[in-house]
From TrEMBL:
Protein name: ABC-2 family transporter
Highest taxon of source: Bacteria
Source species taxonomy: Bacteria, Bacillati, Actinomycetota, Actinomycetes, Streptosporangiales
This protein's UniProt keywords: Membrane, Transmembrane, Transmembrane helix
Residue spans crossing the bilayer: 37-57, 89-114, 126-146, 166-188, 195-215, 248-269
Length: 274
């Protein structure tokens, strides 16, 4: 009696292989986008440049403080303060991962190649996370060493990587920026337009913290403690504020908030037309 031999078909490849292919495709797209290299360079320049400038300003201010206030000076956080500007560029990188395809119409091609939208968005998020983390760690160490050199040149207290909590804070700067990049992917997926997504990220990461300082003190403390990006920034401090969450608790709150937004983006991405 004749028998048939089942041969593996491309249509029945394991899901892991198909996801790996999607990841390779997204990596190719990201590294060949002209905007990627420019965005990375801008992020590095903004982070290190503003970190040095704010470290200089912090050192000047330190000399005018009362002894009690000088005791609370955190040279590590001061040198990492350039993240305020670097996060905007990293967020743009995350946004462009998805909105650039909507702008060019390539999203239809991507969905044809990877019909499962959860897989496509997951591949984009994974590639962005890895690239953003690598870039952000370089920026974090660049901000730290440049800022500490500026502080040392002014003769004010400065820190070394071997001091308590300093290495965690520097590595934490890279972790924070990478998570902000993932938030950019989520917001870009929800908004689908680069300008609108950038405006949203500026409001979330920059405007809310600025306006929080104008609120009554009791409200300002609550916002500063629990607003996700402000809470997440605690991972970059070697010291601990009296009214702030701990470094890992604050970072965990940020990650949870970004996870919720990514979940919402996945639901919206999977239900609407391309």
């Amino acid at each position: 009696m004749p028998t048939t031999i089942d041969r593996p078909s491309r249509l029945t490849r394991p899901p892991a292989a198909r996801f790996a292919g999607a990841v390779r495709s997204e990596w190719t797209k990201l590294r060949t986008l002209p905007s990627t290299a420019w965005t990375v360079l801008v992020a590095a320049a903004l982070g290190v440049g503003f970190g040095a400038l704010l470290s200089y300003a912090g050192g000047r201010k330190y000399t005018t403080l009362a002894p009690a206030d000088q005791a609370s000076f955190d040279p590590t956080a001061t040198s990492l303060s350039g993240h305020v500007m670097a996060q905007q560029a990293i967020a743009v990188l995350g946004i462009l991962v998805i909105t650039s395809e909507y702008a060019t119409g390539m999203i239809s091609t991507s969905l044809t190649a990877v019909p499962r939208r959860a897989r496509l968005l997951g591949a984009k998020a994974m590639v962005l996370a890895v690239v953003a983390l690598a870039v952000s760690e370089v920026i974090g160490f660049g901000m730290f060493f440049t800022g500490q050199a500026v502080l040392a040149a002014q003769g004010v207290p400065h820190a070394g990587l071997g001091e308590p909590h300093v290495l965690r804070a520097v590595i934490g700067a890279g972790l924070y920026l990478a998570v902000v990049g993932l938030l950019g992917v989520a917001v870009g997926t929800l908004v689908r337009a680069t300008a609108g997504a950038v405006a949203t990220m500026v409001a979330v990461t920059l405007l809310v913290p600025i306006f929080a300082t104008a609120l009554p003190e009791s409200w300002s403390r609550v916002v500063g403690r629990f607003w996700p990006t402000m809470a997440g920034q605690q991972i970059m401090a070697a010291g601990h504020g009296a009214h702030a969450l701990g470094p890992w608790a604050g970072f965990g709150l940020l990650c949870a908030a970004v996870g919720v937004v990514l979940g919402a983006a996945l639901v919206v991405f999977g239900t609407r037309d391309a």
